[in-house]
Amino acid sequence: METTRTLGRSGIEVSALGFGCWAIGGEWQDTDGQPLGWGRVDDEESVRAVRRAVDLGVTFFDTADTYGAGHSERVLGRALGKRRADVVVATKWGNVFDEDTRTRTGGDASPAHLRRALTASLDRLGTDYVDLYQFHLSDADPEQAALLRDACEELVREGLIRAYAWSTDDPARAAVFAEGPHCAAVQHTLNVLQDAPAMVRLCEEAGLASINRSPLAMGLLTGKRRARQPLEAGDIRSRPPAWLQGFGDGSGADPEWLARIDAVRDVLTSEGRTLGQGALAWLWARSPRTIPIPGFRSVAQAEENAAALEKGALTDAQLTEVDRLLGR
Ligand SMILES: NC(=O)c1ccc[n+]([C@@H]2O[C@H](COP(=O)([O-])OP(=O)(O)OC[C@H]3O[C@@H](n4cnc5c(N)ncnc54)[C@H](OP(=O)(O)O)[C@@H]3O)[C@@H](O)[C@H]2O)c1
């Protein structure tokens, strides 16, 4: 398998594996105390993990202004330093938050907020352009989003961003953004247990990259979580909001999800892959457009995930076998 892929129509080349920077934002919450991060992290370890990833050939990093209420962007910017020019940085806007209290206070889909948010992200990242700027409000009104798409075209003309995308699971919404010439991708949920055929088809037809969030099903597809194994307070998976699947009521991994992982374990761990590497291999086989962006919180996780690149994609026969085993 080629170890690079193109960011849709933009022509921007990235490693076929990106790194997701949600967890390294550390703890943050909603106004009602709902955790929105992945619990405590060690910033120095996060910095080492980012640098190790770059050493191992990873050239694509996905963050958001709101992860850790600005903290993820700051850590990523510090870790990259001068190497920022060698990599492709994607971030997101749309959420409103308070950096001091690390609290998300709401959302704002106005073009005025778009510009304010970009200025703040550039400052935190320590850069003067964003490669891929993504709209983070996945269920926003499509008519409003069309105004944002046009505002993004303006930002491309000004040289502040190179391309843009919508982070959404709805193909109809993604299609609204796809009408803009510099829309390069959709960021959406895709993993072995959560297929998204309509979205993958849209990406293939419209020439967009399919950037895959939660490629490891929020850690479940690494095989390390057991049923009734509680998560740390402050970790979003300990108190899952309605949209977060696979962790039941928060008392541990959902047994039904674990059973489905067991069903495909042998196929995914073939050719010496770890389970997590097999989950990434499934994504590369799923479409030539996919670019998984697994999250990480340590050098060890960064190394294991980056090593998946050399092992490449599953075969078409293995893809069919996974569908059969999961009754699809
Ligand atoms: N709305 C949006 O736009 C949106 C939503 C979700 C995600 N995303 C993006 O997608 C990225 C990835 O998705 P995700 O964070 O939801 O989940 P994921 O990539 O499916 O799972 C990542 C988590 O799995 C665990 N892990 C990773 N590598 C591992 C390894 N080699 N061995 C053992 N455990 C490992 C880590 O958590 P533990 O060690 O704590 O288990 C890590 O934080 C995010 O970082 C973010 O950039 C965007």
Give a short overview.
With 328 residues, the chain is of the alpha/beta class.
Give a verbal description of the structure.
The chain has a single domain (4-219, 284-313), classed as NADP-dependent oxidoreductase domain (TIM Barrel). 37% of the residues lie in helices and 17% in strands. It has helices spanning 43-55, 71-80, 111-125, 142-157, 171-178, 197-206, 255-268, 275-286, 299-311, 316-325, and strands at 4-6, 13-15, 19-20, 29-30, 60-62, 88-93, 95-98, 103-107, 130-135, 161-167, 183-189, 209-213, 290-292. β7 and β8 form a beta hairpin. α1 crosses α2, α1 (43-55) packs parallel to α9 and α5 (171-178) packs parallel to α6 (197-206). The model has no long low-confidence stretch (mean pLDDT 97). Bound molecules: NADP nicotinamide-adenine-dinucleotide phosphate. Residues 20-23, 38, 62, 136, 138, 167, 187, 213-219, 222, 224, 276, 293-297, 301, 304-305 line the site of NADP nicotinamide-adenine-dinucleotide phosphate. NADP nicotinamide-adenine-dinucleotide phosphate binds at residues 20-23, 38, 62, 136, 138, 167, 187, 213-219, 222, 224, 276, 293-297, 301, 304-305.
